[in-house]
Design brief:
Structural class: mainly alpha
Oligomer: single chain
Radius of gyration: 24 Å
Shape: elongated
Number of helices: 9
């Protein structure tokens, strides 16, 4: 399987049969999420990666077709044109709105436990884009979706958060997007978001810097590992994955996190073994 980045603890690597060379397995998961908000079978004589995991459900864009009618003949009565639906407000809409009266502090405690009900979610989703509470409302919906392991809802609320230009530079949301795309096999997109998150890590709250940077480094290592699996024998991609696993290990060792360092050591052992066999 390709690299998987998730919110729980990593699972042990998959064992291989004696007849086949050892398969490189990605880490099952990454560092736990604290925001308010991975690989290939080796065939003799050289290792080749397995087929990638099917991409999970993503949003689809539906197009509308306009039915055109021929011009009316002379004397023919014409129907009044149908009214168009009211467009959704965009980020550039500056029309003032009335503040939405909801208890965000109460909803925050519920979201932390993944206990937002339908009525609370509808109230938060009703907060419009140009309301001052829009970002916090979507952050609470995002947190609730993550606690419930609801991947489609997680992506939906992240996309909504990205409609605010200032949120596009938020390393927490960028890391969440990177993890989502890495778990769904979109490794290049995952790398773009991870690099953006790393670039703006200084915006992180001090208590989240260590864990979020560890998560970013692991996503990068897992994404390069997935790209290597798809290439079959691209040593450049393999070396990049190895370097990022080493970067991740060095980072977690600074806090004496032997559990996280051990996961990196396991991945590095398998990747270095594949590299040695590819060289001969």
């Amino acid at each position: 399987e390709p690299p998987v980045v998730a919110e729980a603890s990593a699972e042990p690597p998959t064992e291989t049969t004696p007849e086949e060379p050892e398969a490189v397995e990605p880490p099952a998961e990454v560092v736990a999420d604290n925001s308010p908000s991975a690989p290939s079978a080796v065939a003799a004589p050289t290792p080749t990666p397995p087929a990638p995991r099917p991409v999970r459900r993503a949003g689809q864009i539906e197009s509308e077709q306009t039915n055109r009618r021929p011009p009316p003949r002379a004397g023919q009565q014409t129907r009044a044109p149908e009214t168009e639906p009211t467009p959704v407000a965009l980020a550039t809409d500056t029309t003032p709105v009335e503040p939405v009266d909801i208890d965000l502090d109460l909803y925050s405690r519920m979201a932390e436990r993944g206990e937002l009900g339908r009525s609370e979610m509808m109230a938060l989703e009703a907060v419009p884009l140009n309301d001052g509470s829009f970002t916090r409302s979507r952050a609470l919906l995002l947190m609730n979706a993550q606690r419930k392991n609801d991947a489609p809802a997680t992506k939906r609320y992240l996309d909504q958060l990205m409609r605010k230009p200032e949120n596009q530079y938020n390393p927490i949301y960028q890391a969440d997007l990177a993890r989502y795309h890495a778990n769904n096999g979109a490794y290049l997109i995952a790398l773009e978001h991870a690099q953006m998150a790393e670039r703006h890590w200084a915006r992180l709250p001090s208590d989240l810097i260590f864990l979020k940077k560890a998560e970013i480094f692991e996503i990068q290592a897992a994404a390069y590992q997935g790209l290597f699996n798809g290439s079959g024998d691209d040593l450049i991609l393999l070396d990049k994955s190895i370097r990022h696993w080493e970067k991740y290990r060095d980072h977690v060792n600074r806090r004496s996190r032997s559990d996280l360092a051990r996961r990196a050591d396991e991945e590095l052992t398998k990747l270095n073994d594949v590299r040695q066999r590819l060289e001969y």
